[in-house]
């Protein structure tokens, strides 16, 4: 078997992790692959692993040896699964490997807004507490989470974990979800999208990106939210309209926007959110804890092994 990894840089935690693949065939690892190099690098491959390098129909049709595509992520929109199916190519993904890490990032962002620990650490380094005439010093609004309403859009693995953590903080949890009300975990109320936006103090997005959810958060839906609300997006960048969110922040229609994903990645320098004081953006790192990446590689290697053994798992094609 000839195995090619097209963009190993983003997922590698330890070079020794690749050893699990080396025993299954001849392995070639590329840190990054530009689109124009995809076919050239994969043309002799039986197995290709990719994270963000796209394999569209035009590439797949030029790879006659290809039998298996392993996506090194949960989302698999980088692969034309219909074209893969037509060419009898198995496509697999890695589900639920980052649930704990992404849920943790949601609350890292939320606590950044409500408690501003980094802000105060920087203030202290600048000597502002030392110069205070009082035993304490604060210059931002500080907010307790208990008793507030946490709205979750999309109640899959990550949304459900976020709900459990919010409940542990003593928050009321409401959800917009395709699940029936009687299928929801105890203590979670099902609401319409508009009801959720109007009632929530925090809104966290965990739904997939589809034509129906693209720009789910826009000028109209933002106007339904409380001016004191905090919006968090660790799902997919295009779930929100960047300009509309920036306008809401600048017009004090939204307290804060926290995101680990943006519509363009890497973002253009002129993204309007970068000019907003109350926009807190991290560079798509919620999934990237060492533990999550190790889990990702374990599942990805087991996916390949299962395919080689003739019993593929986590198949999406």
Helix tally equals 11
Which percent bin holds the helix content? 25-40%
Largest sheet: 7 strands, parallel
Low-confidence stretches: none
Strand content: 5-15%
Number of strand segments: 12
- Rg result: 22 Å
Tell me which oligomeric state these chains represent.
single chain
Helix-strand makeup class: alpha/beta
Q: What is the H/E order? A: EHEHEHEHEHHEHEEHEHEHEEH
Provide mean pLDDT, rounded: 95
Strand order of the largest sheet: 8-7-6-9-10-11-12
Task: List the keywords.
five-stranded parallel β-sheet; about 325 residues; globular; 11 helices; alpha/beta
Describe, in plain words, how this protein is organized in 3D.
The protein is of the alpha/beta class and 317 residues long. The chain has helices at 19-22, 38-42, 57-60, 81-86, 99-115, 117-125, 157-168, 193-199, 219-224, 242-250, 290-308; strands at residues 2-5, 26-29, 47-50, 68-71, 90-92, 149-153, 172-176, 188-190, 202-205, 230-233, 256-259, 279-281. The chain has a seven-stranded parallel β-sheet, with helices on both faces. A five-stranded parallel β-sheet has the order 2-1-3-4-5. Helix 5 packs across helix 7. The radius of gyration is 22 Å and the shape is globular.
Brief account:
By secondary structure, the chain is an alpha/beta fold. The protein is 31% helix and 15% strand.
What's the helix and strand layout?
Blueprint: E1 2-5, H1 19-22, E2 26-29, H2 38-42, E3 47-50, H3 57-60, E4 68-71, H4 81-86, E5 90-92, H5 99-115, H6 117-125, E6 149-153, H7 157-168, E7 172-176, E8 188-190, H8 193-199, E9 202-205, H9 219-224, E10 230-233, H10 242-250, E11 256-259, E12 279-281, H11 290-308
Parallel strand pairs: 1-2, 1-3, 3-4, 4-5, 6-7, 6-9, 7-8, 9-10, 10-11, 11-12
Helix pairs in contact: 5-7
